[in-house]
């Protein structure tokens, strides 16, 4: 029997760990149930940190972790999924195509930044969506030091006032001063089409976020969106023009395109609708998890967000349940009643909230310390020792926070 997991992000990693844990509990040999993790590289990209400096360092190796629990790593990229034949066609690292058959499949292909057809967006916008994107932005920012100081050079426009946009924007003044010199006066502008910054955060946290932006001199343009980009700036939907050498797109996510090959219902974000065990109901043998799935967290109408906090636990449940079906073990309904947010606010600290109504628990330096622990410890893979890896993957205990 073979269980294939597509994707080595937070959901895919924990799907592999959790399925291996159940295989170990049931005393089944890896020869009798092969667990294969398919991804281009055996690394976890620590995507929540890509707004930081030195993005090339923000990965964690997975090869030793997978070896410790007898998970096979298949290096390649999934190109097509044939759910009737139960086969995945991949392009391997050295070029040739290869077909892998599966008995169960976990789709943990993640998400991609939503890039609408705005004139100039593809040519001129930067992002922190994927590792290569963040590295390209970092190189661009350093290259600006070779240009003469000007309003255009020193202005950064961030399109999108959600979580990612705010974390990018609040990090930018310090990053630019480190590049241009401590006496530089960079200008950072967040463009948000809604009538409030941090539209999903709610009324209690928002004043704290707004105060932090003011403290750092980060400007906001509300009620307008980017209509067009060119080599020297952006034009907004209200006709205003902002001259800028750096435009960072941070306006929404969609499930990875591979997810569209699964013949199931999906939501407006392209996520597959799944049942409480994270199965795709219309496709036998297929589970979806992480950013590829729209899953209910509880019985109160709350659904998992596109975040590592939800992907980590969802992955553990999906891996467990896919293996359970093959091993004749009980499945476990996914649930995740606890929900917190920890938003980095640069030099102003951070803000930590709890619950879907986002009650503020910590702000400033105390919240920043928690954010640092999340970013540098809690979301990283377990140490590559068999007992530690298996112990980390109990779906009922897994949480990124």
UniProtKB/TrEMBL annotation:
Transmembrane segments: none annotated. The keyword Oxidoreductase applies. It comes from the Bacteria. InterPro entries: FAD/NAD-bd_sf, FAD/NAD-binding_dom, NDH-2. PANTHER family: NADH DEHYDROGENASE, NADH DEHYDROGENASE-LIKE PROTEIN RV1812C. Belongs to the NADH dehydrogenase family. This is Pyridine nucleotide-disulfide oxidoreductase.
């Amino acid at each position: 029997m073979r269980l294939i997991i597509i994707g080595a992000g937070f959901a895919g990693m924990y799907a592999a760990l959790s399925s291996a844990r159940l295989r170990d509990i049931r005393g089944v040999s890896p020869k009798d149930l092969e667990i294969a993790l398919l991804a281009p590289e055996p690394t976890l990209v620590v995507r929540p940190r890509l707004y930081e400096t030195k993005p090339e360092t923000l990965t964690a190796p997975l090869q030793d972790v997978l070896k410790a629990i007898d998970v096979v790593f298949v290096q390649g990229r999934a190109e097509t999924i044939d759910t009737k034949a139960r086969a995945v066609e991949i392009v391997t690292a050295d070029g040739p195509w290869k077909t892998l058959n599966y008995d169960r499949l976990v789709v943990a292909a993640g998400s991609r930044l939503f890039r609408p057809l705005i004139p100039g967006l593809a040519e001129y916008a930067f992002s922190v969506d994927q590792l290569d994107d963040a590295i390209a932005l970092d190189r661009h920012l350093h290259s600006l030091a070779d240009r003469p100081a000007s309003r255009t050079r020193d202005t950064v426009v961030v399109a999108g006032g959600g979580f990612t946009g705010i974390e990018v924007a609040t990090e930018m003044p310090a990053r630019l001063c480190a590049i241009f010199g401590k006496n530089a006066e960079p200008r950072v502008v967040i463009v948000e089409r809604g009538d409030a910054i941090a539209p999903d955060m709610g009324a209690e946290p928002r004043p704290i976020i707004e105060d932090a932006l003011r403290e750092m001199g980060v400007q906001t343009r509300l009620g307008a969106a980017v209509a067009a980009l060119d080599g020297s700036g952006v034009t907004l939907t209200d006709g205003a023009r902002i001259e800028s050498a750096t435009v960072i797109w941070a306006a929404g996510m969609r499930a990875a395109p591979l997810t569209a090959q699964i013949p199931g219902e999906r939501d407006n974000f392209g996520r597959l609708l799944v049942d409480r065990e994270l199965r795709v109901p219309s496709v036998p043998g297929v589970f979806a998890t992480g950013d590829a799935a729209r899953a209910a967290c509880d019985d109160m109408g709350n659904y998992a967000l596109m975040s590592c906090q939800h992907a980590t636990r969802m992955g553990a449940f999906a891996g467990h349940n896919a293996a359970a079906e093959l091993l004749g073990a009980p499945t476990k309904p996914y649930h995740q009643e606890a929900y917190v947010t920890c938003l980095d606010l640069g030099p102003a600290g951070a803000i930590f909230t709890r619950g879907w109504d986002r009650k503020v628990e910590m702000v400033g330096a105390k919240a920043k310390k928690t954010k640092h622990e999340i970013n540098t410890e809690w979301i990283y893979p377990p140490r590559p020792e068999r007992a530690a890896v298996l112990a980390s993957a109990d779906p009922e205990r897994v949480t990124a926070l």
